[in-house]
């Protein structure tokens, strides 16, 4: 019998646009069954990479988000320990993990780099499901029109988007599960 897919909605916060020269500051993942049952969560705030620097444009944006900036700078963990724990958590879930993000191109770039660098593997292989791309298909519209303001409000269930990684991951996971239900 094939394993059920588990959708791992993930959100990250960074101090720049690319991993290595810049650091991932925090990440949160929320594991959902297709029926929107929350199966578990994982979050970590990370120490910055040795030699990495903050991107000036990203820092300007962070200056407008003082509460979120403070939240991702508490209880810091070394990336090595955090990513190994994360990979073990994903592997412990009761199904086949599918990485889901909004936008997947950005979040998966960092998560994949950090998993390979610090844990030596990715339980997601090389792939990620992009919520905006999926919304484009469900809404039957162009990609540039598949934005949150054009999506039905009930898909969001009044979830905040406050740049605190785990809270955003939960909200995006609910959005994804609602998209999945609308498509099925």
UniProtKB/TrEMBL annotation:
<dbReference type="InterPro" id="IPR012337">
    <property type="entry name" value="RNaseH-like_sf"/>
</dbReference>
<dbReference type="InterPro" id="IPR036397">
    <property type="entry name" value="RNaseH_sf"/>
</dbReference>
<protein>
    <submittedName>
        <fullName>3'-5' exoribonuclease</fullName>
    </submittedName>
</protein>
<dbReference type="GO" id="GO:0003676">
    <property type="term" value="F:nucleic acid binding"/>
</dbReference>
């Amino acid at each position: 019998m094939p394993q059920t897919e588990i959708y791992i909605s993930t959100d990250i916060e960074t101090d720049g646009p690319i991993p290595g020269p810049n650091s991932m500051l925090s990440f949160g993942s929320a594991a959902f069954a297709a029926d929107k049952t929350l199966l578990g969560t994982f979050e970590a705030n990370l120490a910055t990479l040795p030699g990495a620097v903050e991107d000036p444009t990203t820092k300007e944006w962070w200056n407008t988000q003082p509460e979120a900036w403070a939240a991702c700078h508490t209880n810091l963990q070394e990336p090595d320990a955090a990513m190994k724990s994360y990979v073990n958590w994903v592997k412990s879930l009761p199904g086949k993990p599918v990485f889901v993000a909004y936008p997947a191109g950005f979040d998966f770039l960092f998560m994949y780099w950090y998993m390979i660098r610090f844990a030596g593997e990715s339980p997601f292989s090389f792939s990620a499901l992009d919520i905006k791309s999926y919304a484009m298909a469900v809404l039957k519209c162009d990609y540039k029109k598949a934005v949150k303001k054009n999506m039905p409000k009930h898909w969001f269930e009044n979830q905040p988007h406050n740049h605190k990684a785990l809270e955003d991951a939960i909200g995006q996971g609910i959005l994804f599960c609602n998209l999945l239900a609308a498509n099925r």
